[in-house]
Each structure stands twice: as C-alpha cells, then as structure tokens.
Amino acid sequence: MTPKKAGKGWTVHYGEPLPRTGHFWRSAWLSGPGILWMSVFLLLPIIIVVVMSFLTRGPEGQVVGDFTMTNYNRLAGQSVFGYDPIYIEILNRSILVGCATAALCLLAALPMAFFIAGLPRRLKTLALILVIIPFWTNLLIRTYAWQILLSPESWLVRPFVFIGLLSPDEALYPGWTPVMFAMVCDYLPFIVLPLYASVEKINWELAEAARDLGAPKWEAFRNAILPQIQPGLIAGFILVLLPATGQFVIPDLLGGSKTFLLGNALQQEFTVSRDLPFGSAFAVVAMALVLFGLMVHSFFTLNEKEKAPVVL
After folding, report:
1. How far apart are CA 218 and CA 138, in angstroms?
2. Is pLDDT larger for residue 22 or for residue 96?
3. Is 130 domain-assigned?
4. Which of 56, 64, 94, 200 is the most buried (most CB within 10 A)?
5. Would residue 139 count as lying in a domain?
6. What is the H or E stretch that residue 4 is in?
7. 278 in a domain, yes or no?
8. How many structural domains are present in the chain?
9. Are 277 and 56 contacting, i.e. CB atoms less than 8 angstroms apart?
10. Strand partners, 12
11. Contact between residue 223 and residue 210 where contact means Cβ atoms under 8 Å apart
12. What is the DSSP-derived secondary structure letter of residue 11?
C-alpha cells in the first residue's frame, strides 16, 4: 500500500496510527473547546474554592488574604471556647443519612429491578419510563408537593388523625421520617436503572445449575446471582450515596431545624453567615468525600474487570 504524504517530512500509511505529534494536534483540535469549557467553568471554580478555604473572613464578611489553617481546625472541632465537635457531627449525620438513603433505596430497587426485567419487552419500556418520570419535574417542585401531601388537609394525614396519633391541625412534617421517605422516593431511580442493567445480563443457567446441585434458594442467589449483579449494586449505591449526603432542599423543607445536614451548613455559611472561607473549607471536605466515594467505586470496578474471565 502506497503511503500518503502528510507534510513536513513524515508520512501516514492507511490503517496505521498517527505519530505522537499528529495525535496531539488532532486531539487538541477536537477536544480543545471541551477542555477549555471544563477548565473555565469547572476546574477554575474548584481551584478558587480550595484557595479561598485557606483565607480568613474580615469583620464585615469580606475575604482577607491571610493564609491560615483556622477554617480546617474549626471543622476539626477547635474553637476559642475549646473543643466543639458540632461540624464533625454534621458530617457524620450527613454520611449516616446518605448511607441510610442508599440502603433503603437498594432494598426497594432490588425487587423492582427483577420485576421489570421479567416483564415482556413492550412493558419493560413502559416500566422504565414510569421509573424516570419523576425526573421530568424539578426536585424543588417535588419537595413542595410532599409538603402538600403531608399537610393537615391531606388525605394521607386523616388516618393518623382518626386513630389519635395526630391532632386535626398537625402535619406529618417536619421530622426525620418525611425527610427519609422523600429522599428514598427521589433517589430510587438512581439505583433502579444500573441495577436493572445488571439484572438484564444475568446468566440464569448458573442459578439453575446451583439448584440442580442441591443448593437452597438463598445459597443459589448469593453464589450464582448476587456476584453477577454486584457491579449494578455498587454503582447504584454510590450514585445515591453521594448526592444524598449533600442534599439541601429536602432536609430544609421537610425537616426544618430538626435535620441540619451538610447542604444546610454550606447554605448558611455562604449566605447567612457570609463566611466564605469557612464555607469553602466545608465545600472542600464535601468534595473530598465525593472523590473518596468515586475512588471506592473505581476500586471495585477495576477488581471486577480483573476477575472477569477471558473469552477467546
């Protein structure tokens, strides 16, 4: 095959890769605009937040350019009045709420994914559309809708009033129960979809073989089915855990002052308190939690790829 002249002393054969210089300029031309966009609107703001987290707040709320570790020491519990672990408790409470939301979503999504996978092809599409329909409405509007459903005039409250658990003018919110219920309902699609994708790929012959060899139903599920859907379980759990940990709207509208989480703390520092450096330090810690979750997900994903059998 005759080589094609490419200019400046080098050639490119059809079907052969470009030299390193050619790869660089072609990649820069194709991905340069996207890289510039991400750098300006994602990377640069993150750098600004990280730098601001090491600065101090002035007496009138302005940012003073004095480099300090005071913000992170304050997050760790050090204050002028002694040790105060309030922000550590907020972080722990946020992580606990995120884990509880992910676990409840997992328990609800597991039978739902198997149910959808067992439907006929026409009904599968309809079921998946019904799962993602809540995403067609803004989260804020859905949360206000929960306030209406849990208000004293709602039909959901009347049974509790009838049996004497609530007074006629009392609502089912604020509190932890409506917060957790709304968060599970809002984040359930995040775990149903990846779990359904894994269930669709199950090799049922392995489960049949386990049953033929005398394994009980639970043992067959644990050893033959669960390893096959593990990637979907892990991906869905991480997809729910990360946004649920930093949730702000649902705890604020349905929990009130009873549920003060990471998102509420960030909102207060950046708006009410006008302490941008301390709020930035809080945001950096939140980003570190997100990166840690992504690292855990990548670790399990890479391990699964290494364990996967080689198909010749």
Report:
1. 40
2. 96
3. yes
4. 94
5. yes
6. strand 4-5
7. yes
8. 1
9. yes
10. 4
11. yes
12. E
User: Residue 305 pLDDT more than 60?
Assistant: no
- State the DSSP string of 109-168: HHHHHHHHHTS-HHHHHHHHHHHHGGGGS-HHHHHHHHHHHTSTTSTTTHHHHHTTSS-T
- Please give the structure tokens belonging to residue 280: 């930035």
* pLDDT tens, position by position, 155-183: 888 888 888 777 777 787 788 888 998 89
36 burial level (CB within 10 Å; 0-12, 13-18, 19+): exposed
Residue 66, domain member (yes or no):
no
Q: Give the domain extent around 266.
A: 73-301
**Residues 6 or more apart whose Cβ sits within 8 Å of residue 224:** 206, 207, 209, 210, 215
Answer yes or no: is pLDDT of 310 > 70: no
Q: Which is it for strands 63-64 and 56-57: parallel, antiparallel or unpaired?
A: antiparallel
Predicted confidence (pLDDT) at residue 36 exceeds the cutoff of 90: no
The answer to whether 163 and 235 have CB atoms below 8 angstroms apart is no
Mean pLDDT of the chain: 81
Q: What average pLDDT does this structure show over 300-304?
A: 64
In this structure, what CATH number is given to the domain that contains residue 274? 1.10.3720.10
Neighbours of 213 (CB within 10 A): 9
Structure tokens at 36: 């510039």
